[in-house]
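Quick note —
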Amino acid sequence: MKFGMPWPGPEVAREAEDAGIAYFCSGEFVDHEAYTTLATMVANTRAATVGPAIAYAFARTPYAHAAAMRSMWQAAPGRVFLGLGSGAFRINRDWFGVPADRPVERMSDMVGAIRAWLTAENGKPVTYDGEFYKVDARVGAPVLGRIDAPVLLAGFNKRMAAAAARVGDGVIGHGIFTQRWWDDVVRPALAKGASESDRDVTPAEHGWLMTAVNDDDPARAVSDCRKMIAFYLTVKTYDPYVEHHGWQAEVAKIREAFAANDPAAMGEAVTDDMLSQIAVCGATADCKAQLASRGDSIARDVVYLAPPSFMVSNRRRQAYAKAAIALASED
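Predicted structure written out below.
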């Protein structure tokens, strides 16, 4: 297993890479765009593998995703991956103005069209004929040539996780994944998807791990993680996850507090059991012990030590990122 981080900025990233952080990833939201951040990561890393984890898939055409990856591959050949997420239905409809029905089928088709561009050779047409995406391009300029950038999918529920192995190269796990969710839902789905693939693929496991280290104020780190967990669980898309863990009563309290605009009460509704299954938080020594005990409750290949962001300032997130570097050290 290797450690990664959401992009912490060039200064912290240099220290992190020197300490053994092997991956950096970029997310996106209304105030930051995945591929712009990816360009910054490429320019400010030496050997780390970098990529979006995730980029909103349906907000762009397959061509746009592939062209961005080709640009980055030229600057950092062999160390760029593509991570795609479907995004919430309402975000696609109301923010992006794009269709997002049948997201698993649409995502699978998106990956096929992207691969058509990524594997295109000079002098040959780029073609793809899918249900949602079609490509028939004659590119006269000699700018193509196959690039083997891995394509990973954010797969929370079993159908998308299966697609991550069937058409992709692996999965990117959410920051609230637990041992039970990995073992009962995600890993069986990956195995099923791999068995249905027409490629010989061993699906990679990447995953975010909610991480807050603060030696001066461990209680604040714990509180920030509680609030972050609560914020995630306000989303009804995750109801199957909630039911799988038997956390319906706790989540009902979280959503009641969210409706009342009471972040403190939201965090207080997250139990110690929920916190221990999801997050690594507190002082450095405690976090190292928690991480060592997690076993297969985290991704097997790449773990992104991700600071909480709900009600957390950029400055405090930077501090959490810097403090988390110690968890990747072998000392």
